[in-house]
Write a structure and sequence with these properties.
single chain, 377 residues, alpha/beta, Rossmann fold, 2 domains, seven-stranded mixed beta sheet
Length: 377
């Protein structure tokens, strides 16, 4: 177990050698990553009541108190689910960096989706499926602050593109952005509950969901409505998290994430919110998930089976996320620079994540899909 001995004696001075090894032997590294915490698996099963609460809640509450952000979390809680969700998604000041802001990560996603590090999902779909179509009528569900909707408007000829969201502040911000770009005659944003939309038969050319479908429940009914509303040549375009419900990570994911975290130099483990070193990745308790946002990953595991059941799948491509989304959560800002050390560390992380899927057969957590209307018999 040469690799394990390396981990046991790991110091900040050997990270470069480890990165080289990760690039040359990612499969061997992943096998050992999954074994590192095997002796501690029993202690990990400390959750109570099917992980309703766990030790991670204690750690999280302590961090929130120290960081001064416990009260804002508690203040989000509302008696009604819809009000609670809207509060969770209220526009606020720019938050800590997410992995979508890391250039190397975005290039990796693009390469996995389109084969070109400079071509994103929108450009790929626009070029392959929408370039010859004119006057499209489309909607975006859970449109947020509008940037993604406006990106779709750039790659296709829309006569009307409407974004729906439950958060009034996000809709207002999105409409302001569309107005500033002179697109208010084509792109509109409305406050609406997607379950209350009319879903008129064969009324839409395009239905878009980008990191919003995993926030919806009653997915089978919703996808039936989408299929009914699509015109004969209509398309359903999806970019989604499809991993475990409520982020209940598998043991393999947690073992690999914690082992990978320990390989990073301390300076790269500094948490975005308080600067302290991230020491461990926890499986969030179900209670924590519900308090933060009751809609988060509520039925995410069912998305792919239901997509295949209710629509006709044309194309689906995964872009990983089963490891890095856990291991680097909350510390992404340390990877924003593009110096040689950061690049090598990210290459190591990418290689290990690839091997986790190929060797340990851990399903990717993020996919894009293009679907046709399914013609029911």
């Amino acid at each position: 177990m040469y690799f394990v001995r390396w981990v046991a004696t790991f110091t900040s001075g050997v990270w470069a050698r480890l990165a080289v090894l990760a690039l040359s032997r990612p499969r061997a590294i992943t096998r050992n990553l999954l074994r590192l915490d095997n002796a501690k698996r029993t202690s990990e099963v400390s959750a109570m009541f099917n992980n309703l609460v766990n030790w991670g809640d204690v750690v999280g509450a302590y961090r929130a108190i120290r960081g001064g952000y416990l009260l804002p979390i508690i203040a989000r809680i509302r008696p009604g689910r819809k009000q609670h969700v809207a509060a969770a998604w209220k526009v606020k000041k720019k938050s800590a960096t997410g992995w979508w802001e890391i250039p190397a990560v975005v290039a990796r996603w693009n390469r996995l989706i389109s084969g070109d590090p400079d071509k994103d999902f929108c450009a790929y779909v626009g070029e392959k499926y929408l370039s010859a179509r004119k006057g499209l009528v489309g909607i975006s569900l859970g449109s947020g602050t509008g940037q993604k909707v406006l990106r779709w408007q750039q790659v296709a000829d829309f006569a009307r593109l409407t974004g729906y969201d439950l958060s009034e502040s996000r809709v207002a911000a999105a409409q302001t952005l569309a107005n500033e770009r002179g697109l208010n005659d084509v792109v509109r944003f409305e406050v609406a509950d997607i379950y209350d939309l009319p879903w008129e038969p064969e009324s839409l050319d395009i239905v878009i969901v980008e990191q919003s479908l995993h926030h919806f429940s009653n997915l089978e009914i919703l996808l039936k409505n989408i299929n009914r509303a699509l015109r004969p040549e209509g398309l359903f375009l999806m970019n989604e998290y499809v991993g475990p419900n409520r982020f209940q990570w598998s043991d393999h994911q947690l073992q690999a994430a914690n082992a990978l975290l320990r390989l990073l130099p301390k300076s790269y483990r500094a948490r975005d919110v308080d600067g302290r070193a991230q020491k461990k990745v926890y499986r969030p308790s179900r209670l924590q998930m519900i308090i933060r946002d009751p809609s988060e990953a509520i039925e995410s595991e069912t998305i792919l089976p239901l997509i295949r059941q209710e629509l006709s799948l044309l194309e689906m491509r995964s872009y990983r996320g089963a490891l890095l989304n856990l291991a680097l959560n909350g510390i992404w800002s340390n990877f924003r620079n593009e110096n040689a050390q950061t690049k090598r560390l990210l290459e190591m992380c990418f290689s290990v994540e690839d091997a986790l899927a190929e060797v340990a057969h851990v399903d990717d957590n993020f996919v894009v899909a293009i679907c046709h209307k399914q013609k029911k018999l």
